[in-house]
Write a structure and sequence with these properties.
This protein has 279 residues and is an alpha/beta fold. The chain has 2 domains: 100 residues, no CATH class; 133 residues, Glutaredoxin (3-Layer(aba) Sandwich). Helix content is 37%, strand content 20%. Pfam families: AhpC-TSA.
Length: 279
């Protein structure tokens, strides 16, 4: 089965790296934490960080999380919205640095790239393009679907109405996709008593191949086989893994590239639905 997806060396490494190392929430605390850290200024030395691709990339991986909420500043320290911020990053003429945490939210500032490493320019552009694509999906209605998992359970647009959906897009030979299985399973365990939440994985592989593969590996999500056309043509997925959080109204709330990135957004949404029930 043919799959159309982006193969980018730096981004492949980024996807694999997401299986390890700390991932932080929008408030600067580790994923899964409710802690809101105090305001803080961060010293950044752009000249040193931009000396080579690896130094810049290592900094960006641990400090600049574009999938979350943040305050954006242009190169002149003028506030700009997330869309405008990502569009400027997509030019490859600027990079982002974390200069402050304010009211629990990171503040990112753009810094011009003039005569710098072309690898930095290219990778920064690629990362921003993926985040912009994901950002544009937020608020869109999840395309109509009728899924049947490996156990014969069916899911469709009507039957899942009023429930939160966590969708994982993957395939067997995606190392980063498989490496995060333990985190996926931990998330299912954490919310096992919440009946308004469904965990569904969309795989491009055939049923028999998936059954054989999963006979020696545990994935607690419902597994839907042969989803290549839906992922590629309906969702326009070009990078794996991709995770989608879908609201009770059927609209996409968040699109991220790792389950760790997803955790704080799911936690926030589950808290919101719990608070609504109290009223």
């Amino acid at each position: 089965m043919k799959r159309s997806f982006i193969v980018l060396i730096p981004l492949f490494l980024w996807a694999c790296n997401n299986a390890g190392g700390p991932v932080h929430t929008d408030n600067g605390a580790p994923a899964g934490s409710n802690e809101v850290l105090p305001d803080e200024d961060f010293f950044v030395d752009p000249g040193k960080l931009l000396e080579d691709h690896d130094s810049w990339y290592d900094y960006t991986y641990y400090n600049v999380h574009l999938s979350g909420d943040f305050m954006g500043l242009d190169a002149d320290s003028v506030p700009i919205g997330k869309g405008a911020f990502l569009r400027r990053l997509m030019t490859g003429d600027v990079v982002a640095f974390k200069i402050k945490r304010y009211r629990g939210m990171p503040v990112y500032k753009l810094y011009p790239l003039t005569g710098r490493d072309e690898a930095i320019r290219s990778t920064s552009r690629q990362l921003a393009s993926i985040e912009m694509k994901n950002f544009k999906m937020e608020g869109m209605r999840l395309p109509e679907f009728a899924f049947t998992d490996l156990r014969g359970q069916t899911y469709n647009t009507g039957s899942t109405k009023g429930k939160l959906l966590v969708l994982k897009c993957w395939f067997i030979h995606c190392l980063a996709c498989v490496r995060e299985f333990p985190e996926c399973n931990a998330l299912v365990e954490e919310y096992k008593n919440r009946n308004n939440l469904l965990f569904i994985s969309l795989a491009s592989d055939k049923k028999n191949d998936l059954e054989k593969f999963l006979s020696t590996r545990e994935l607690e999500y419902a597994v839907i086989p042969e989803m290549d056309a839906y992922m590629s043509n309906k969702l326009n997925i070009t990078m794996y893994p991709t995770h989608l959080l879908v609201g009770t109204d059927g609209k996409i709330l968040k699109v991220v590239q790792s389950v760790k990135e997803l955790q704080p957004f799911l936690e926030k949404e589950m808290k919101k639905t719990a608070d609504q029930k109290k009223w």
